[in-house]
């Protein structure tokens, strides 16, 4: 199990490894992607870390716009929806003070029935912690092969 705690570091890891967002810290590259005019002074334009999909900005560290997927139930849905779109089945449950997230890879038609059955019975990720958004994020990182 990962030792990442809920918060900005885990949210950033999800953005990069699960959501597929690219972290850009080069000011000139950020300016190019955001189409900042050349005559705008760097003193007025100060974005230091922006997350992109292609040239589309998704989140900005300075703006505080990174979805808090590891602590918010609403934001956690972004992770579950992304995993589902990538061919994973996400099962979530809470029991008393514990929350569990189990992720299975869905059969994709290119594997044998035996391989597909194995994927359905053996999870690619399984996490148990105290908060469901945290469990989902830790399991998601496992599922995509980043621990």
Silhouette? elongated
Structural class: alpha+beta
Helix content: 25-40%
Q: Mean pLDDT score, rounded?
A: 86
Task: Summarize the main sheet.
Answer: 3 strands, antiparallel
Q: So, CATH architecture of the largest domain? A: 2-Layer Sandwich
Q: Please give the count of helices.
A: 5
CATH class of the largest domain: Alpha Beta
- Estimate nothing, just give the exact number of structural domains: 2
> How many E strands?
6
Our measurement of the CA-to-CA distance between the termini, rounded to an integer number of angstroms, reads 8 Å
CATH third-level topology of the largest domain: Double Stranded RNA Binding Domain
Features:
single chain, alpha+beta, 3-stranded antiparallel sheet, elongated
Describe the structure.
- The protein is built from 5 helices and 6 strands; from the N terminus they run αβαββαββαβα.
- It is an alpha+beta fold.
- The chain folds into 2 domains: 8-60, no CATH class; 73-143, Double Stranded RNA Binding Domain (2-Layer Sandwich).
- The longest helix has 13 residues, at 73-85.
- The termini are close together.
Secondary-structure blueprint:
Blueprint: H1 8-17, E1 22-24, H2 27-33, E2 50-53, E3 56-60, H3 73-85, E4 88-95, E5 98-105, H4 113-121, E6 125-129, H5 132-143
Antiparallel strand pairs: 1-2, 2-3, 4-5, 5-6
